[in-house]
Amino acid sequence: MSSPEFVLISIALGASFGSLACMLSRATLCARRPVPVQLL
What we know:
This protein has 40 residues and is an all-alpha fold. It has one helix at residues 4-32. The radius of gyration is 15 Å and the shape is rod-shaped. The chain starts with a helix and ends in an 8-residue tail after the last helix.
């Protein structure tokens, strides 16, 4: 069951979860250090 739609949806979900985890990790890193670091 590997239809193109399912593959695209899984890729989109993976990208969104990856970006969310990256934002959370950056937030924790910024919360740990008092120095404001901007990584965009």
